[in-house]
Amino acid sequence: MRFAAIFVLCCALAHAQTNNPLYPRAYTGTLALQAGTPPFNSLTRANSIGYAPAPYNTRLAQVTDSSTICGGTTAAPWFTVPGGGGSSVVATNANETLALIVSAGNETCVLGFNPVTLQVFPVGVPLTVCPGSAVPSRSNPALIYCMANQNRNLPGVGETNGTTLYGMTFARLVGSCQACYDASTFAWSKIVDFATCQKATASAPVWHSTIGLDVLDAHISIAMSWTGGQDTGRYYFVYDPVRQICQTLDTIGDGTHPIAYYSNGTNAVVTDYVTGLPLIASSPVHESIMANNLGVVSEEGDNVLLAWNLNTYQATNVGVPPQRGGHTAFSASYFFNDANPAQERRLITAPSQPTQIAKFGCIEDKHFDANLANDSDPLVGTSGKIVTVMWTTPDCNEVYGLDLSGALLYRFSPTWIGNRGSNFYSQYAIGAVSSSRERFFFTSDMECGLNASCLPEVFVADLSGN
C-alpha cells in the first residue's frame, strides 16, 4: 500500500524530531496491534487501575461500576460521558477536580475526580445532580451548567419548566485539596430561560440538543423542537451572558434561506460570509454545538452544517461539496471532518477547500474533538464499531489522537468494545476529553465482559503517560 509506506515514513520522522508535550509517551508506530485481554471485567470495581498492553502502556481507571447509582437508575444500569458525534463537550470542570457521567435515564451526575490518581469519589453513593443534560464551564471550575428536565424541584430556584438553563456552583472541598470542589455541595441559580428568545415556546420542548459553550463561556447555545424528536427542530438559540441577550437562528427559514431573529425584535435573511449573498441552506436540526464565536448547527445528512458567526450574524454552509462526510470538530481556525477513512481539514473562512491530512487504515466511524481555543492541540477521540478481531491494519477500535497537520498519529489504548449489544455508546466507545486534554473518558463494555447484559461502564485513560 503506497499510502501506508508514506505514512510510516512521515510518522517516523515526526516522532524522531518532536512529540507533543501533552502526549510525550504516546505510541506513534504503525503496527497493527491486537487488543489483548481487557484489563477490567465483572470482578473489577470503580477506581480499579489497569494498563493498556505494550506498546501502548497507557494507565487506565474504571470510573463506574454496578454500585454507581446516578439518576435513580438501579436496574441493569449503564453510564456514558457527555459526548458524541461532533460534540465539543468536555468531561471535567476547568481544573479537572469534578467529572461528569450520564445515566441511562439521561441524567447527569457529578463525581469528585483526582486527575493524578484517576480516582473518583464518592463511589456507590446515590447521586442525582442535574436531572437532565449538563456541561462544565470552560472558565470557572466551580460552575456547571444544567438543562434540567421539566417538573423537577430544585432547591432555591423552584420547579423546572424544561426551557430554563441553570447553574450549579460548587463549594471548595474541605481538607488537603485546596483546589478541589465538593461534588455534594452546590447552589442552584437561573442562567437564562430560552423561552424568552424569539420564536421559542413557553412549554417544555419535546427535544433539545446538547448545550454548547464556546471559549470562556462567551456564548451558550441550544437547539429545541416542540414538534418532535431529533431532526424536527428548526430553532437554535444563542445566549450572551455578558450582554444578557438571546439571538435565534431559524434553520429552515423561508424554505430556501435561514432567518436570524435578533434580540431587538428584528429579523433578516442570513447572508453567506464567504460570498456575501443570501445563504442558500434550509434544513431541520440534528445537533448543535459551539465553536470559537461560532454557533454550529447540523442536519442529519452531510449536506448542511451551518457555521453562524456571532459577531456579524452571517453564516456559511461548511458542509458544501466536496462532500465532507462523517463527524466534525472545530479548532480556533479550522473545521475537521471524518470522510471515512480520510480525515480532512478546512479553514472556517474557506470551507470548500479541504485538505486531506490523514487516511486511516481501518474503516470505522471516528468520534473526535478539537480544542476550540487553539490550532495546535491534536484531535482526540475514538475509532470503532467493529467487534474486536485480529487486526490487520492500525488505528482500529482505539483511543487515538491526531496531529492537526496529520503528521503524527497518537495511539493510546484499545477500547475493547464488544458490539454484541445495541448500546450506541459502547458500540462506538463514545468519549470526551478532560479540560486539559490529557485525560480521556470513554464508554466500553470491555468485550461484553462487565456484566451479563453486555452493558457499558465509563473508563478514563491518562493520555499524558504518567
Portion in beta strands: 35-45%
- Tell me what the CATH architecture is: 7 Propeller
Radius of gyration: 21 Å
Q: Could you give the count of β-strands?
A: 34
**N- to C-terminal distance:** 35 Å
Domain module tally: 1
Helix content: under 10%
Biggest sheet: strands, sense, closure? 7 strands, antiparallel
Spans where pLDDT lies below 50 across 5 or more residues: 1-18
CATH fold-level name: Methylamine Dehydrogenase, Chain H
CATH class: Mainly Beta
What sort of overall outline do the alpha carbons produce when their principal axes are compared? globular
Q: Could you say which structural class the secondary elements and strand pairing correspond to? A: mainly beta
Counting H and I runs of at least 4 residues, what is the number of helices?
2
User: How would you state the average pLDDT, rounded?
Assistant: 88
Task: Walk me through the structure.
The structure is a single chain. The protein has about 475 residues and is mainly beta. It has a single domain (about 1-195, about 320-460), classed as Methylamine Dehydrogenase, Chain H. The chain is about 5% helix and about 35% strand. It has two helices and 34 strands. It has helices at about 1-15, 425; strands at about 50, 60, 80, 100-105, 110-115, 120, 130-135, 145-150, 155, 160, 165-170, 180-195, 205-210, 210-215, 220-225, 235-240, 245-250, 260, 265-270, 285-290, 295-300, 305-310, 315, 330, 335-340, 340-345, 350-360, 365-370, 380-385, 400, 410-415, 430-435, 440-445, 455-460. Strands 13, 14, 15, 16, 17, 18 and 19 form a seven-stranded antiparallel sheet that branches. A hairpin with a 3-residue loop joins strand 9 and strand 10. It is globular. The model is unreliable at about 1-20 (pLDDT under 50).
